[in-house]
Amino acid sequence: MSFTQEKKCFIKVVAIGDSGVGKTSLIQMFENSKFTENFKPTIGADFSNKEITINGRVVTLQIWDTAGQERYQSLGTAFYRGADCCLIVYDITNSLSFENVINWKNSFLNKSMVVNPEGFPFMIVGNKIDLENERQVSLNEGEKVCKQNGDLLFTEASARTNQNVEIAFQKLAANALKRQEEMQKSLDESMQNRRAQEREKNKRLGRPDKQAGQTQGSQCEQC
Ligand SMILES: Nc1nc2c(ncn2[C@@H]2O[C@H](COP(=O)(O)OP(=O)(O)OP(=O)(O)O)[C@@H](O)[C@H]2O)c(=O)[nH]1
Ligand SMILES: [Mg+2]
């Protein structure tokens, strides 16, 4: 295995959604297999790292847990920048939190200034499915909104029972990694084309080929 292949990949995940929907709880369960009943709203944002394996490759997830409370929303820009993917959480027992999902998505795309918003990896999580008796948003409604808004990844989950928590993060990260690799591949291809054109031009003009011996293409800086 070459040195570049051994280097680890890094993916920045940003979790957003209304206050109280369970962002911190999902992250806590995913990272530490712990759940706390009492609600301590996040102030500003926290971040933590977790290593996971995707298709045999070690990937470091840097997970940003942001505050859902309105008063912290102006901080968004700082936390969103450089994100590779985004987890949007709503609470299935709170229809308003579901209605806000697309606002969160749009606000994220505006503030993060993602270069290529088309196909940016979002995972929508309908949390608290352990509270089935209090459900206000059906599975069908969740699926429909995700389909209508660019086929966003979607799952229902429970941070309390640990249902579908790991799979939500794994799927989102796998998607982000795939996108990173595709973007790197097209960058490598355009670099190679440019080099080939340059070589051709030098040949025509009888100039020495400065690129001879240089390695072609590069692995993703982070991968
Ligand atoms: N029953 C149940 N309660 C949950 C679940 N997930 C979170 N909670 C509870 O919901 C409350 C809010 O959870 P948090 O994870 O703090 O919510 P948050 O989205 O991080 O909120 P902010 O930090 O204010 O944005 C807490 O009392 C949690 O115990 C779940 O899956 N089921
Ligand atoms: Mg929180």
Automatic annotation (TrEMBL):
- InterPro entries named in the record: P-loop_NTPase, Small_GTP-bd, Small_GTPase
For bias kind Basic and acidic residues, which ranges apply? 181-210
Under the GO molecular function aspect, what terms does this record hold? GTP binding; GTPase activity
Q: Where is this region: Disordered?
A: 181-223
Q: What is the name of this protein?
A: Ras-related protein Rab-7b
- Polar residues composition-biased segments: 212-223
Its family?
Belongs to the small GTPase superfamily. Rab family.
A matching Pfam family:
Ras
The UniProt keyword set, sorted, is: GTP-binding, Lipoprotein, Nucleotide-binding, Prenylation, Protein transport, Transport
GO biological process, any: regulation of immune system process
